[in-house]
Amino acid sequence: MMRTYSRELAGLATITAGHPIRDAVRNLPGGDTAVVQIKNVSANAGVDWPAVAKTILTGRREPDWLKPGDILFSARGQRNVAVCLNQPPARAVCSPHFFLIRVKDEGLALPEFLAWQMNLPKAQRYFAQSATGSYITSIRRQVLETLPVQILSLDRQRLLVRLAHAGGREKQLIEKLTENRQRELELVARKLLA
After folding, report:
1. CA-CA distance, 103 to 30, in Å (whole number)?
2. How far is CA 74 from CA 7, 30, 51, 145, 171, in A?
3. Which of 24, 134, 154, 166 is most buried, by the most CB atoms less than 10 A from its CB?
4. What is the domain range of residue 29?
5. Which DSSP helix (H) or strand (E) runs through 98?
6. Distance of alpha carbon 169 from alpha carbon 60, whole angstroms
7. What are 76-93's pLDDT values in tens digits?
8. pLDDT interval class at 101 (50, 70, 90)
C-alpha cells in the first residue's frame, strides 16, 4: 500500500515575494538581468526564456537570483500557475507578481512534484476560493503557505513528474498538429476560392 500524508506548503518550502520592481519592466539594450513576468509563464511550457525582457536592475537590494529547482507561482490574475525552473539564466529574477518557492528538503519533496500538484484542479479550486480582489484577483502569501499538499515516496513523486512531463509534451504536439492542419485548410481554401 502506498504511504501518503498531507502537509502545508509552508512546512516544506520557503515562500518569498518576487523582486521589487517599481516601474514597468522594459527590454533594454545592454540589459544584464532577465525579469520573468506573468506573460512569460505557462503551466505546460514553463518559462518562455527567449521572450523574457532583459533589463538593468536599480536599487540597493541584492537580487535573489533564480536557481534550478525554484518554483514560480503567479499570484495575480486568473491564471495561478506554478512552474519549476530547470536551468534559469545566471542573472534572472521574477517580478513581484510571483511568489518564489524554494523546497527546504528535496529528500522529502521534489520541486517538480510540488509545482505539478499546485496546478492540479484541487489546488486551483483552493486558490480560486481563497483569492481576494474583485477586478484583478490575487493570492495572499498566507493562502499559499497553508495550501495542503500530499507527500508520497520519492519514487512515486518521480514517476508522477515523468508522467506529467509526457502529458505536457503530448499536449504541445497535439496543439502543433492542430495549428498545422489549420494552415493546410487555409491554403486549400485560398486555392479553391481564388
Report:
1. 33
2. 21, 27, 17, 14, 22
3. 154
4. 5-152
5. strand 98-103
6. 41
7. 888 899 999 999 998 999
8. very high
CA–CA separation, 131 and 15 (whole Å): 17
Would you state the pLDDT for residue 27?
77
3-state percent helix, strand, coil for the chain, nearest multiple of 5: 35, 20, 40
**SS3 of residue 127 by DSSP:** helix
Give the total number of structural domains in the chain.
Answer: 1
What pLDDT is attached to residue 3?
Answer: 66
Rounded-to-integer distance, Cα 180 and Cα 155, Å: 38
Query: CA-CA distance, 50 to 55, in Å (whole number)?
Result: 14
Where residue 82 sits, what CATH number does that domain have? 3.90.220.20
Q: What is the DSSP code (8-state) at residue 3?
A: -
Residue 158 forms part of a structural domain = no
Distance separating alpha carbons of residues 17 and 73, to the nearest angstrom: 10
Report yes or no on 79 lying in a domain. Answer: yes
Task: Find out whether 93 and 57 touch, Cβ atoms under 8 Å.
Answer: yes
Per-residue cell: 161: 513528474
Residue 188 lies in a domain: no
Which of 53-67, 89-103, 113-127 has the least mean pLDDT? 53-67
Looking at 2-58, which runs of residues are DSSP E strands?
A: 5-8, 13-17, 33-36, 41-42, 46-47, 53-55
Single out the residue of 164, 76, 65, 49 nearest to residue 112, CA to CA: 164
